[in-house]
Amino acid sequence: MKVYFIGAGPGAADLITLRGARLLSQCRVILYAGSLVPEAVLEHASPDAERFNTASLDLQEQISLYRRAQHEGLDVARVHSGDPAIYGATAEQMRALRELGIAYEVVPGVSSFTACAASLGAELTRPGVTQTVILTRASGRASPVPDAENLASLAAHQASLCVFLGGHQLEQNVAELLRHYPPETPAALVQRASQPEERRHVATLGTLLGGLKLSDWTLTTMLLVSPALHDPAELQEVSRLYDPAYAHRFRRAQKGEG
Fold first, then answer.
1. Residue 252: inside a domain
2. pLDDT tens sequence across 116-140
3. How far apart are CA 94 and CA 82, in angstroms?
4. At residue 142, does pLDDT exceed 70?
5. pLDDT digits (tens, 9 = 90+) for 205-251
6. DSSP states of 58-73 as a string?
7. Range of the domain at 160
8. What is the CA radius of gyration of the chain?
9. Using the 8-state DSSP alphabet, how is residue 193 labeled?
């Protein structure tokens, strides 16, 4: 018996990994966060599998399901949105499984921050602009953000910044970010990236809230702020990786003409 923590991806049924889809089809017990994992993702599961929506279950209730599956010798697919390593609340489950002597495996998934960048047609790292991506989230009752990681201190780097689940604190977040990012810094809101109901709002940080109905962006929204989101036509510097004059172990440099 084994538990598989499967990253379901950002929501589109075909953005789960091949490994994740295969294991989902094989497991006889499925636990999934129904508030974040769309039903479409479960199309990969066997119709005979027993399914439990964990949105209404506390940790002990979930552990009892693991115990039952252990007693019956059934593999479990524990399906999390995005990638289980990021805001997945998986650590406490893994600790409980170790205490129960249940083996587990983590199957990575496509994170929503990369799905948002894809939706925007953007690269979050650009030569001469930024080579750093910071992932953070808005502080909440369930998991407060440590004081040392407050949004203003992260913004001081002026790197690409992705704020998960920040829709309910947009005004506060933007005010904090404007302490360090110039108002003309590109910014975007992406809601339910990769899903049929996906929405985007692209602006600058200084104009992001203008004319916006904040209540429409409360749930499942990511805020992205980055100088790398400028129009690619404005690129002043590019990577040397594909420069004909740049040699590396897989390619010789081309000599110039003349």
1. no
2. 999 999 999 998 899 999 999 977 6
3. 18
4. no
5. 999 999 899 999 988 999 999 999 987 666 666 655 566 665 666 66
6. -HHHHHHHHHHHHHHT
7. 112-230
8. 21
9. T
d(CA 29, CA 46): 10
Per-residue model confidence as pLDDT tens digits over 78-131: 999 999 999 988 999 999 999 999 999 999 999 999 999 999 999 999 988 999
Indicate if 201 and 226 belong to the same structural domain.
yes
Q: Is residue 183 part of a domain?
A: yes
Task: Specify whether 130 is located in the same domain as 194.
Answer: yes
Domain boundary among 107, 131, 166: 107
If asked whether residues 82 and 126 sit together in one domain, one would say no
Q: Are residues 158 and 224 in the same domain?
A: yes
Q: How far apart are CA 24 and CA 75, in angstroms?
A: 10
**Within a domain: residue 171?**
yes
Domain count, the chain: 2
Whether residues 85 and 54 fall in one domain = yes
The residues, any chain, with a CB within 8 Å of residue 83's CB and separated by 6 or more, are 7, 108, 109, 110, 111
Same domain, 95 and 119: no
Cβ-defined contacts of 62-66 (< 8 Å, 24+): 62/31, 62/93, 63/93, 63/96, 63/100, 65/29, 65/31, 66/3, 66/93, 66/96, 66/97, 66/100, 66/102
Q: Kindly tell me if the per-residue pLDDT of 180 is higher than 90.
A: yes
Residue 151 is inside which H or E element, if any?
Answer: helix 151-155
Residue 13's identity, in one-letter code, is: A
Judge whether 116 and 82 are in contact, CB under 8 Å.
no
